[in-house]
Amino acid sequence: MKRALITGITGQDGSYLTELLLEKGYKVYGVVRRKSKADYGTVEHLKKDIEFIYADMTDMASLIRAMKIAQPDEVYNLAAQSFVATSWEQPLATAEINAIGVTNMLESIRVVKPEARFYQASTSEMFGLVQETPQTETTPLYPRSPYGVAKLYGHWITKNYRESFQMYACSGILFNHESPRRGMEFVTRKITDAVARIKCGLQDTLYLGNMDAKRDWGYAGDYVKAMWLMLQQKEADDYVIASGETHSVREFVELAFRHAGIELEWSGEGIEEKGIDKNSGKTLVAVDQRFFRPAEVEILLGNPSKAQSVLKWERAVGFEELVRMMTEGDLARVSGEVAGNGVDA
């Protein structure tokens, strides 16, 4: 039985990866931080199948202890301060977790079990002010947020340990990947939750930032398969994992409302742009400058050809199916909450 240690196990990717590994017969250990109240996040339904270890990415001694307990064959580092907007408000904490934390994990592996295979969750945010489109494994990196900068350090220290100590250490440069398990603070889930609440009469308007920002969106359940595949290769390497297509925030909004039976038409430009319900004439979407980033990433578009040829990785869920899946999930949840509270929606 293979053994895997996952940091960040309670997040979106952690839950999908745990399900995949359990299906493959792994013994799964999950690193969690000590809190006053136990919070298993998205792995609540799997907690009986996971052995949890209390540790923190900023405390190397605790990570060494976790390694000694788990004795893993594979380590998946998914832990991060993962919300880009927060990285401007907490740049030092973001650096401690997303940069130094990766070094702590790599050192812990090197001290306890250097033959363990290591996966680092890198990000398309490292491309930032893109130098070429589409982006590949060799595209120059130009991060535009403290989050992207910290992740860039984590990416390069992983490569450095691979080359310096001959460790099996690789990075997956994952482009935006979403699901019904995505945190509410992320724009995709903010959209689908708002659509459900508007549909049920619990919210009037969805406020967003840059509607023209374009992202390469995929399904998290597909992307964790690529993480596993990276650690099954003969030699460690880095891979871009992406859908190969890009869509604007505006497109995501339109599709989400359409899946809820609401057709939008747009009026105005820039901060005056509004999304209006064609039937009722009500303004359902508006722009709020508070949600603009200090330095914007305008477009991300990945080229996954290396992963497709070497890993034989393919995605199963397309953009429209992803938006439908997320919208239907939030519609079901919000409708259930309304019914449970006896609210007349």
TrEMBL record:
Entries under InterPro entries matching the protein: GDP_Man_deHydtase, NAD(P)-bd_dom, NAD(P)-bd_dom_sf
Family annotation (Pfam families): GDP_Man_Dehyd
Keyword Oxidoreductase: no
GO molecular function: GDP-mannose 4,6-dehydratase activity; NADP+ binding
GO biological process, one term: 'de novo' GDP-L-fucose biosynthetic process
Protein family (similarity comment): Belongs to the NAD(P)-dependent epimerase/dehydratase family. GDP-mannose 4,6-dehydratase subfamily.
Name of this chain's protein: GDP-mannose 4,6-dehydratase
Keyword Lyase listed: yes
EC number(s) on file: 4.2.1.47
Keywords: Lyase, NADP
NAD(P)-binding domain ranges (all copies): 5-326
Role played: Catalyzes the conversion of GDP-D-mannose to GDP-4-dehydro-6-deoxy-D-mannose.
Known cofactor(s): NADP(+)
